[in-house]
Amino acid sequence: MSTTSIKEVARHAGVSIGTVSNVLNRPDLVAPATRQRVLDAIGQLGYVRNDSARQLRAGRSRTIAIVVLDVANPFFADVVRGAEMEAEQAGGVVVVCNSGEDAARERRHLDILEEQRVQGVLITPVHDGPDSRLEQLISRGTPVVLVDRGSGHHHRCSVAVDDVLGGRLAGAHLVEQGHSRIAYVGGPASIRQVADRHAGAAAAIGTNGDLRLVETASLTVAAGRRAADEIADLPARERPTAVFCANDLLALGVLQEMTLRGLRVPRDIAIVGYDDIEFAAAAAVPLSSVRQPREQLGRTATQLLLEEVNDQDRHQHRHVVFQPELVVRESSSRQHRRRARANPAG
Ligand code: RIB
């Protein structure tokens, strides 16, 4: 741990302490040659700024926290990437906390983040609706932006995607492809995104078919495999010919299990996922999916948070809702024939 002080750096570089501070905080104010002399001294002495003193003066760190539901889900990795790009442009950093869809764990993260005086918190809450801990965080001066959650609340911003429309797009596509026995795989239903996607698909399918709910305990590949088992075990005359999944991890699990059970995708069973993570297009049978603007969700949430941090008096809370987009690939479309692979032998 470096114990070199800013005073030693100034002496080594032959400048004032104020000049060293400017090089660290306002480098544009320092002549290039002087700036380089100070940077050389910092490198030679191994000086590391102690931000805790600055935090005490400023009352806040330059750290933004994002609390995600499942750090293993690539959806959140892309959201975090967008948040990081925006935070770094403002000279800050993003720290990631994983609630693992556990409300007690989420609360513990929020307690520590408040103690650390983070600039603000981006969060996809485990539970929808009013949250006393988030209210407390806001009332004690830590701005909060809901991510991937709509919010009618007047004292926080939110960014989300119209998941009902997303479900509609998937349901209408499967009906257009000629399916009338369709399964919706997702859960728990207490997660707002899961419920909205289901509602949208049901509205689009309407009287054109039967939508069977196969509820899962989580939104993971393993849960998708278990749901596929349940579907594949149904008698052929009852078995759905298409599956709409609440997210791509579930869809990848369904694809894997159906393939292991000898069912051909899309010939015997069509599959549509949600998020359009990178692995969707790369799957053995490229996955149709409802695309969410993942990085844009992260960027926009961070922009809203920084707007509030930088001008709390004039900031007006906003609820930004993005539109999803259906990306059709081979897993649900007979038209998307597998491209003939070039003969490796040439
Ligand atoms: O958090 C689980 C799911 O909800 C993600 O896959 C993404 O779809 C989000 O909206």
Overview of this protein structure:
With 346 residues, the chain is of the alpha/beta class. It has three domains: 6-49, 434 Repressor (Amino-terminal Domain) (Orthogonal Bundle); 60-161 and 294-323, Rossmann fold; 163-292 and 327-342, Response regulator (Rossmann fold), CATH 3.40.50. Helices cover 44% and strands 17% of the residues. The protein has helices spanning 6-13, 17-25, 32-45, 51-58, 74-89, 103-115, 132-139, 163-176, 192-205, 221-232, 248-260, 278-282, 294-310, and strands at 63-68, 93-98, 120-123, 144-147, 157-161, 181-186, 210-215, 242-245, 270-275, 288-291, 319-322, 325-327. Strands 2-1-3-4-5-11 form a six-stranded parallel β-sheet, with helices on both faces. A six-stranded mixed β-sheet has the order 7-6-8-9-10-12, sandwiched between helices. The longest helix has 17 residues, at 294-310. The protein is elongated and about 85 Å long. It starts with 5 loop residues before the first helix and ends in a 19-residue tail after the last strand. It binds alpha-D-ribofuranose (RIB). Residues 69-70, 73, 75, 148, 193, 219, 247, 274-275 line the site of alpha-D-ribofuranose.
